[in-house]
């Protein structure tokens, strides 16, 4: 699967598009004459997300979105300048779907429960939109969706009384673990759907590895764990184990603060 990168559009126009619904309203705007447009940017972004959900990210091209909306590709360019900006708009809108509690809004009382809420919402988001797993956000779409999640995690970690640097680092570590694991989970589910073959079936086809090629003397630890039934935990147990140990480590910093 080819990796796409967000954040590739021109900064000024991308920011204006991302924050289009968060500008202060003015009372001195004059009504415009003529026919009202039948298309707006929100419909364009919705169409791109729907195509990516149903057919994969490649389907959400400028021409593909234009066709889905029943307009010419050149018409679409009057709403979004390029595919780079469209990708950022799609990603940030999906990030905002998590609807994480903002300042002053009700949220779980325990900081761990707040992190688990972020975890649950993020994993559900990737399941709804598996194409997210093929997008690198090293240069993220700095829109409302991304910043809302960042504010939420920082506020959850801030109650621990750590230094500002530790609070930021803890939030970044949590984001890295949860987002990466959720992306891998979505990629796994997408692969099963696209190939029609379960992972268990894939491994079953390669059973000869253990019967013919596997050398127990060269892999004594693997063999010992196998004999002790140490490989029986499922993906969910592995994920929760890693997250809980990460939170244990962050919480242990309280005594050093």
Short recap of the structure:
The chain has helices spanning 11-18, 41-55, 62-69, 73-76, 83-96, 111-128, 144-158, 164-195, 199-205, 208-213, 220-227, 235-252, and strands at 4-5, 135-136.
Commentary on this structure:
With 257 residues, the protein is an all-alpha fold. The protein has a two-stranded parallel ribbon with strand order 1-2. The two termini are 44 Å apart. The chain contains 12 helices and 2 strands. 23% of the residues are buried.
CATH architecture type: Orthogonal Bundle
- Spatial strand sequence of the major β-sheet: 1-2
Q: What summary fits the major beta sheet?
A: 2 strands, parallel
Encode the helix/strand succession as letters.
Answer: EHHHHHHEHHHHHH
* Overall average residue pLDDT: 91
Strand proportion, as a percent range, falls in under 5%
Low-confidence stretches: none
How many independent structural domains? Answer: 1
Report the count of strand segments: 2
CATH topology: Tetracycline Repressor, domain 2
Structural class: mainly alpha
The rounded Rg comes to 23 Å
**Fourth-tier CATH superfamily name:** Tetracycline Repressor, domain 2
CATH class: Mainly Alpha
Taking the alpha carbons of the first and last residues, their distance comes to: 44 Å
Helix content: 55-70%
Tally of helical segments: 12
Shape: flat
Structure keywords:
257 residues; mainly alpha; Tetracycline Repressor, domain 2; two-stranded parallel sheet; 12 helices; 2% strand; flat
